[in-house]
Every structure is written in structure tokens, then in C-alpha cells.
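Predict the 3D structure for this chain.
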Amino acid sequence: MFEEQATKVKITSVVILVGMSSMLAAIVTDHWAVLSPRVEKLNATCEAAHFGLWRLCKKSIFIVKEDPQGKGCGPISLPGAKNCSYFKHFTSGEEAEVFEVKTQKEYNISAAAIAIFSLFFMILGTLCVIFSFGKGRDYLLRPAGMFFAFAGLCIVISVEVMRQSVKRMIDSDETIWIEYYYSWSFTCACAAFTLLILSGVVLLLISMPHMPRNPWETCMDAEPDTLD
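Done. Predicted structure below.
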């Protein structure tokens, strides 16, 4: 690998590291979306919720004054009794009695599985980048770029599945929540797929063969034909 090429790969690797960190933060946290019921009166308790790929958390908040941001019951950072329940993606059991948990389980199985595929692609891409610094192994940059691009696409799909999950929760007549907003875990996922897809494209461009700067450069480098 040429020195200039290695410098570009190192800079791109820093961006990839930021993207991977954002994705890991999104996967392990449960603040993808915050759901809120209608607040009928003040000086009363309302139940807001936030969820991620693995669990749904409900929080009872005592409302003294209206939320200045107009997000109903909240903000979610206010103190209150908290109750979290995991979706139990890969375990069998009785059907959930609470509609929101049942609904989230249907969607989150898909979103979590796709996120795991994204992690798998990120690991493969990282290994390819590491080994590409060896002598004569710069060809590994091409599969590395493809793996990171695939990881970014998986995250896009996972984000869209979660968006559909939120929409179904809000539209259902069986839930108390009528308002929602996407929180910082969702932002981390969006930042992750943007950085990973762009980094994958950059690695593919770096791995491309050198193009001649001048139209006559290729002709001048060619060996002259010998006459028999």
C-alpha cells in the first residue's frame, strides 16, 4: 500500500470508528422513540414510555405544568417510577397480554436481527481494513468497503422497521399513546448508517486502480512494439 493511500485509509478508519461507536450505542440503549399520552389535567400522573431494540420502558411522571416543547407527558427525563420489560425475542412463552409489548415484539425481532447482521458486516470490514496494511494486501480494501456499505444498508432497514413500529403503536386504538418523538438512540443509528455507507464508498474509491492524470500518460508508459 502506498503511503498516500495508507493515509487516506487511516483517516477513513477514524470515521468508521465513529460510525461503529454510534451504532453500538444505538443497539444497546432503549431511547429510539419516546411515546406520550394526552395530558388531560395538571397535578396528576401520566405514563410515558421509551423503547429500543430489546425492551420497552414505562415511566409514571407527575405533571405539574405543561411541557414547553408540547410533547404531552414529559419530558421523559423527569423523575418517576420506571418499569422495563424485555421483548424476549428468542424465547417461547405465553402471548403478551399488553398490546404494545406484543406489537413491539413482532417488529423488534426483525429490527434486532438486522442490527446483528450489521454488526457481523462491521466486524468483517474491520478485519479487512486491518489486514490491508500488510505488504501487497491493499486488495482487501475493496471487500472492506463493501462490508461497511452493507452494514450501513442493514442499519437503514433496521431504522425503517422501528419507524413502522412507532407508527403502528400510535395509530392503534388499543394504546394510550398519541404523541411521539425520536430520541438520541435513533439519532445515533441515523448517524451510523450515514458514516458507514460513506466510508464504504470511500474505501471502494481508494481501492480503485490509479487513473492517468494526462491523456498521453498511458501511451508514454506503454512498451514500444518490436518489429520482427
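Residues 67 and 74 are 6 Å apart (CA to CA).
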